[in-house]
Design brief:
Strand order of the largest sheet: 3-4-6-5-7-8-9-10
CATH architecture of the largest domain: 3-Layer(aba) Sandwich
Oligomer: single chain
Number of helices: 11
CATH topology of the largest domain: Rossmann fold
Order of helices and strands: HEEHEEEHEHHEHEHHHEHEH
Distance between the termini: 81 Å
CATH superfamily of the largest domain: Alpha/Beta hydrolase fold, catalytic domain
Largest sheet: 8 strands, mixed
Number of strands: 10
């Protein structure tokens, strides 16, 4: 008799689970499309990316995330293989820290006689973006900064500011306009670019060469970059599309901040761009995907609210159906937005407007 009752109980639970599963699979079809269901694997197999199992249950949010991630990879595969994350242009040493040379790759428009050119610093490669900018008369510097391997914050902002000062100090040499400098990047690169837009007039962040030059920028484009590290873990836990793994979070905190996760609120606050928002910040264009599985959309929404409350010009574009990463956020509409944004803010800033740190 007990076995019969047990079997009935199991059947009821399985029935409830089947309903939940059907609801989740319906959501998967809605977001990923009917043709992408092959990547939403069964509960027995889980969902794997490389060697890391990120979902034991095909009805779990992590399985949905994997479905979206894999669908996005296939959709963007050709673009990724064509441009990847490589940079192009002349490699230049902009600073030396403890014997280590820090470099940037400078890409200039083909018409050398048309300069001096406004320039955009990009954090994270960006060969495709360089082509886009060069075709519109804007130079691009793909900047390498210290990150990981024991180099913790504020190393990244110190290096980023050094790169800006270097370009200003050497503007004539490289045919650049020192009064028209912007910054951009994707994911953590977007966060680094945003730091340049808000972390101003702080002596600790200004070290190295060319200290007689300003490290301010006149515009920032943040592609799906982190903005508030103090709330990042909770934001991810609250977002059903984001796979927030405690072990990964701990590793990234150690890598970037040098402290244990959940025990370094002061360091997280110091490294968060939301901490520094003020009325004299650079104009921002924020672009993120509605289906971002790595950086919660609310991070960009909250940053947008703070910027506007402070009177800073800012625009937030949440791209419908788009996942994380530059290649998912560089559609025709976004290209027009970027072109108009840079035309306005890299052409309308006069030399007198450039503030010295």
């Amino acid at each position: 008799m007990k076995k019969i009752f047990l079997m009935i109980a199991v059947m009821v639970l399985l029935g409830d689970a089947a309903v939940v599963c059907a609801q989740k699979q319906s959501r998967e079809r809605e977001l990923c499309g009917e043709n992408d269901q092959g990547v939403c694997v069964s509960a027995r197999k889980g969902c794997r990316e490389g060697d890391q199992n990120i979902g034991q249950d095909s009805c779990s949010s992590s399985s949905l995330t994997c479905c979206m991630r894999q669908a996005g990879k296939r959709k963007q595969g050709k673009d990724r293989s064509r441009s990847s994350e490589k940079s192009s242009g002349e490699k230049i040493v902009y600073e030396t820290r403890n014997g280590t040379e820090l470099t940037l790759s400078l890409s200039l428009p083909k018409d050398k006689a048309a300069g001096p050119y406004p320039v955009l610093l990009y954090f994270g490669g960006g060969a495709e973006f360089a082509e886009f900018l060069n075709a519109r008369g804007i130079a691009m510097a793909s900047v390498r900064v210290r990150f990981g391997n024991g180099d913790i914050f504020p190393a990244v902002i110190q290096d980023a500011k050094s790169a800006v000062r270097f370009l200003r100090a050497n503007a004539q040499k490289y045919n650049l306009d020192p009064d028209h400098i912007a910054a951009s990047g994707s994911s953590k690169g977007g966060m680094f670019a945003s730091m340049l837009g808000v972390m101003n007039d702080i002596p600790e962040f200004e070290i190295g060469s060319n200290l007689d030059q300003s490290s301010r920028v006149q515009a920032v484009i943040n592609f799906c970059g982190h903005t508030d590290l103090t709330r990042f873990y909770q934001d991810g836990a609250d977002d059903p599309l984001v796979h927030m793994d405690e072990r990964t979070y701990q590793r990234k905190n150690q890598e970037f901040l040098g402290c244990d996760a959940f025990k370094c609120q002061e360091q997280e606050k110091k490294a968060s761009v939301v901490t520094y928002v003020s009325s004299d910040d650079a104009p921002f264009l924020l672009i993120t995907g509605a289906n971002d599985h790595l950086v919660p959309v609310v991070q960009l929404e909250r940053f947008q609210d703070l910027l506007q409350s402070a009177g800073v010009e800012s625009t937030l574009d949440i791209v419908p159906g788009a996942d994380h990463g530059f290649h998912n956020l560089f559609g025709e509409k976004q290209q027009k937005e970027i072109e108009e944004f840079l035309k306005e803010h890299l052409q309308s800033v006069s030399a007198q407007d450039v503030k010295k740190n």
